[in-house]
Amino acid sequence: MINIKILSYKSPQRYVVNRTLMVAQNMLKKTYPDLKIEITEVKELSEIEKYTAVVILPSLVVNEKLVCVGRFPSRDEVLGWLRSALTE
Predict the structure, then answer these.
(1) CA quadruple 30, 31, 33, 37: dihedral positive or negative?
(2) Engineering a disulfide at 57: which of 26, 31, 49, 70 sits with its beta carbon 3.0 to 4.6 angstroms away?
(3) What is the rounded distance in angstroms from the CA atom of residue 14 to the CA atom of residue 72?
(4) Alpha carbon distance 86, 4 (integer Å)
(5) CA distances to 19, 36, 54, 64 from 69, in Å
(6) pTM for this model (two decimals)
(7) Closest Cα to residue 39, out of 85, 15, 8, 4?
């Protein structure tokens, strides 16, 4: 199980990152059919600030590790982080 948190108080930003995650997850399911990913959208500023001071742009946490701060990750970056999480 991979736990992912999308940190952003703006809904459109969370949506874009979520779509990128869905594409990456679908690609990985071909290799890992039993892959389980839990995605949580963190909207509260106080919760976001537990991970990063950047609250205007989206950030991403994979298994409680901050992997992307203040930008929109590419699909290939997300695939790399998910593969890394699978081997941990």
Answers:
(1) negative
(2) 70
(3) 10
(4) 13
(5) 17, 24, 7, 13
(6) 0.91
(7) 4
Domain 2-87 part of CATH 3.40.50.300: no
Query: Measured between alpha carbons, how far is 65 from 85 in angstroms, rounded to an integer?
Result: 10
User: What six digits make up the tokens of 58?
Assistant: 């989206």
The distance of Cα 30 from the centroid of its chain, to the nearest Å, equals: 19
Hey, where are the domains in the chain? 2-87
Q: How far apart are CA 17 and CA 13, in angstroms?
A: 6
* DSSP assignment letter at 30: T
Q: To which H or E segment does residue 11 belong?
A: helix 11-29
pLDDT along the chain (88 residues), means of 10: 94 93 93 92 94 92 96 95 91
Question: Max alpha carbon distance in the chain (Å)?
Answer: 37
